[in-house]
Prior knowledge:
This protein is of the alpha+beta class and 411 residues long. Helix 9 (277-305) runs antiparallel to helix 10 (311-340) and helix 10 (311-340) packs across helix 12. The protein has three domains: 2-120, Acyl-CoA dehydrogenase/oxidase, N-terminal domain (Butyryl-Coa Dehydrogenase, subunit A, domain 1), CATH 1.10.540; 125-230, Beta Barrel (Butyryl-CoA Dehydrogenase, subunit A, domain 2), CATH 2.40.110.10; 250-385, Butyryl-CoA Dehydrogenase, subunit A, domain 3. It is built from 13 helices and ten strands.
Amino acid sequence: xxxxxxxxxxxxxxxxxxxxxxxxxxxxxLDMDADRITFPTEFLQEAGRRNLLGLRFPxxxxxxxxxxxxxxxxxxxxxxxxxxxxxxYSLVSIVGETIKVYGTDEQKxxxxxxxxxxxxxxxxxxxxxxxxxxxxxxxxxxxxxxxYYILNGQKRFVVGAEGADYFAVYAKTAPDAAPHExxxxxxxxxxxxxxxxxxYGLMGARGxxxxxxxxxxxxxxxxxxxxxEHQATKIFWQMMIPERxxxxxxxxxxxxxxxxxxxxRRKAFGQTIRxxxxxxxxxxxxxxxxxxxxxxxxxxAEIVEKELGPxxxxxxxxxxxxxxxxxxxxxxxxxCMQILGGxxxxxxxxxxxxxxxxxxxxxxxxxTEIQNTIIQHEYFKEVLSKGxxxxxxxxxxxxxxxxxxxxxIYE
Length: 411
């Protein structure tokens, strides 16, 4: 749907990314899903070689100086490769965001530039075994010791841990302070004291290098502190923008197109199944949902890019994109499998792999329930701070004020 609104430059970018996607060997996708490959190193290297990583970042650091809409266009093309490729592509943008916005020039030179070049790989270390969605309940600590921080603790479900050269690690630097005033962000190089253990048995999203990190008395140079000490809360919320907005890139279009072609050929009861409303109405619903997600995501991308409206308003919209897109694509892929019938439940077609991968999207980077919490919280703040705007429809009833006071009891 968005293609008709694309500029010629955006179409050229889309074609560049398509060419990258077509270059990925089929066997690599299969080996990643089978856990025979634990990190898509070659993909990131090739994307970096083609200058397709970190499109939004300044050219000075290796980006292209583009916008969020271009980033979504690229992610929409990468999506058909599977969630692992999309995730690794997004990680560059997510970790890079913190360095670009809050990092020093030295940090940008040392970490951001090679990351965008595809010669150094990153991962973000947020989730802890005791924490999950309770990010600010983290127990990892970093104690200042002269020109170093001494880092101890552990993180779990760290996407890309297997291949990462460095980690963006949130740890408590003021353990006795309030949770939102106790955290700092450190760039931690892989090395002595950093132990990476692969997480096996994932339902989907395999080959993503997902691991568990153990930090034991790791000496992190103080110059690797990103932003101010104890003030990582604002960095976290900045990081959540690319973390969640990237989910708005619809990847289920490829699966739906596959199913439509199947429905146009598969016959049952003497005719192709696309002629049955039980099938074609499902496809119509899927098309409508995906078009709606795409339009909404690109609209929010422009709002975020131009920083329109208050920060809380943008935070709400980004959470809506994450919730709407991940839930919708899960529903669409379920409908795709239903249309395929039994063959869709086998690995003869890629739908079952896509379905397994998509289930994770409603959990990571803040569950759907966390998004609901943010959405309603920010909306209540907006509504209650503004009062009634426009026509007050509460007065458009046949009852008098006295009668209303008898009918509507608040306390």
